[in-house]
Amino acid sequence: MLRTQLDALMADALRDRRLLDHPFYRRWEAGTLGRAELAAYAGQYRHFEEALPAVLEAVVEALPPGRARQVVQANLADERGVPAPHLELFDAFVDAVGGSTHGAPTPRTADLVGLYRELARSAPAAALAALAAYEVQAPHVAASKAQGLRARYGIGADGTRFWEVHTDMDEQHGQWTLDAVASMSDDTSEVSGAARAAADAWWAFLDEREAEAPLVATA
Asked: Rounded CA gap, 83 and 33, in Å?
């Protein structure tokens, strides 16, 4: 598949699912999320971050030797230890906002993680398209989160480091992943369907966080 064709498919899949347009992230940028909301968000997002290495491992195992496999292996190596294990960096954020590392996943969190796990097992090209649907947005999302945490919530360097790392790293990861998808598949319906399913799952994850805001505020 040509990269220009893939870029157009991805843009269409994300057309009304740009994460920074979601009300939850708009409130994050404005500094109007309550501390308990940030804590709840951190505890739920952690389930995705915890699952990501296994998702990448499953994709690696399903791919034949070649450029696409090398790309995913490089992504996995970064996740595991550049500049430190990313779950370790994320847990510093969880701690900074008063979140829990032991809470059960909510329904939409479970749906999100389950989507990536299922695609990784059954359709590696689709799994990479689903990852790309997030990663192409991630640098701007991460930069916005880090800025909001510093400026609006007074979170220090340890608490923002995860997002600052991803501000730079996911720019490269997004391009790597798109190149891998383009090299693996000419099935436009598979790629666009997986990208849209991931975009919808992330949007639903944020919808759930927004819907639970009044409950979190009074807990």
From this structure: 29
Bond before 83 cis per omega within 30 degrees: yes
Place of tokens 């920074």: 20
Question: Which option is the CATH number for 3-218: 2.40.50.140, 1.20.910.10, 1.20.1250.20, 3.30.1330.50?
Answer: 1.20.910.10
For 116-204, strand residue ranges (E) read none
**CB-side neighbour CA atoms (13 Å) of 150:** 13
pLDDT of 105-118, one tens digit each? 999 999 999 999 99
Domain regions of the chain by residue span: 3-218
Query: Which amino acid, one-letter code, is at 208?
Result: E
Digit-coded pLDDT (tens) for 42-100: 999 999 999 999 999 999 999 999 989 999 999 999 999 999 999 999 999 999 999 99
pTM of the complete model: 0.95
Measured in Å, how far apart are the chain's first and last C-alpha atoms?
Answer: 50
Instruction: Assign 187 to helix, strand or coil.
Output: coil
Token digits of residue 121: 């097992």
